[in-house]
UniProtKB/TrEMBL annotation:
<protein>
    <submittedName>
        <fullName>Glucose 1-dehydrogenase</fullName>
        <ecNumber>1.1.1.47</ecNumber>
    </submittedName>
</protein>
<keyword id="KW-0560">Oxidoreductase</keyword>
<dbReference type="InterPro" id="IPR002347">
    <property type="entry name" value="SDR_fam"/>
</dbReference>
<dbReference type="InterPro" id="IPR020904">
    <property type="entry name" value="Sc_DH/Rdtase_CS"/>
</dbReference>
<dbReference type="GO" id="GO:0047936">
    <property type="term" value="F:glucose 1-dehydrogenase [NAD(P)+] activity"/>
</dbReference>
<dbReference type="Pfam" id="PF13561">
    <property type="entry name" value="adh_short_C2"/>
</dbReference>
<dbReference type="InterPro" id="IPR051122">
    <property type="entry name" value="SDR_DHRS6-like"/>
</dbReference>
<comment type="similarity">
    <text>Belongs to the short-chain dehydrogenases/reductases (SDR) family.</text>
</comment>
<dbReference type="InterPro" id="IPR036291">
    <property type="entry name" value="NAD(P)-bd_dom_sf"/>
</dbReference>
């Protein structure tokens, strides 16, 4: 990854920060885009933080242009920024629906829109769209979230087709991952410990995932070892959703 540049959205925590740390350790230039401040403590020319609301076109355009100006190239875009909101279609307010769509879907379109031209200039690039296992299965009361994450699979295919053969696009679909977003969501429950145990139990591997595990998959998909992979969605979900509802192991 030496002399290569990766842009990561939602990079100040969770999966985004795990990706940023891994790519940095492997020698890449890392551009972090987030509305939250960078608290990593890393002070290096290869570590470049920009405060950016990735749902706003002008901010995305300036952040990506500044990244290219600083490092001279953009090799990888990891569209990771996302939020979770709860509600079904009848009780989700319109502004809440729009917020989820803007952060979880529009932002990935905007970042690709402004990063891909630089990839075209250099003749290669990889776009990773972080979707969710909920693009395949869904829990109750996540109408906006699961809709946005499912739409990302279509965006992934479209980018893969439109910019082949030199630019690849792949979706990564995590299950339950131990991130600040998960912890914040669980904290809304009257019994957070019970909800966490439910999260653990619903995965056949009997645990939730780590951000670093998702980062390793993303790193592989960006590498030359994955050069024959494009337009696909990869679930990294501990087997979530593959069992028949209500089935349990014999005691």
């Amino acid at each position: 990854m030496k002399n290569k540049t990766v842009i990561i959205t939602g990079a100040s925590k969770g999966i985004g920060l795990a990706c940023a740390t891994l790519f940095y350790e492997q020698g890449a230039n890392v551009a972090l885009l987030d509305i939250s401040p960078d608290k990593s403590g890393i002070n290096d020319e290869r570590w470049f933080y920009t405060a950016c609301d990735v749902s706003k076109n002008n901010e995305v355009q300036h952040a990506i242009q500044n990244t290219h100006q600083k490092f001279g190239r953009i090799d990888f875009l990891i569209n990771n920024a996302g939020i979770q909101r709860y509600g079904n279609v009848t009780d989700t307010a319109e502004d809440e629906w729009d917020l989820v769509m803007n952060v979880n879907l529009k932002s990935q379109y905007l970042c690709a829109k402004h990063a891909i031209p630089f990839m075209q200039q250099q003749g290669s690039g990889v776009v990773i769209n972080v979707s969710s296992v909920q693009a395949f299965v869904s829990q109750q009361n996540v109408a906006a979230y699961t809709t946005a994450k499912t739409a990302l699979l279509g965006l992934t295919r479209s980018i893969a087709v439109d910019y082949a053969p030199n630019i690849r696009c792949v979706a990564v679909c995590p299950g339950t991952i131990d991130t600040p977003m998960l912890r914040d969501s669980i904290a809304l429950s009257p019994d957070p410990a019970a909800v966490m145990q439910e999260c653990i139990d619903m995965h056949p591997v009997h645990r939730i995932g780590k951000p670093e595990e998702v980062a390793e998959l993303i790193y592989f998909l960006c590498s030359d070892k994955a050069s024959f992979i494009t337009g696909q969605a990869f679930r990294i979900d501990g087997g979530l959703g593959i069992t028949i509802a209500g089935s349990k192991k014999d005691s």
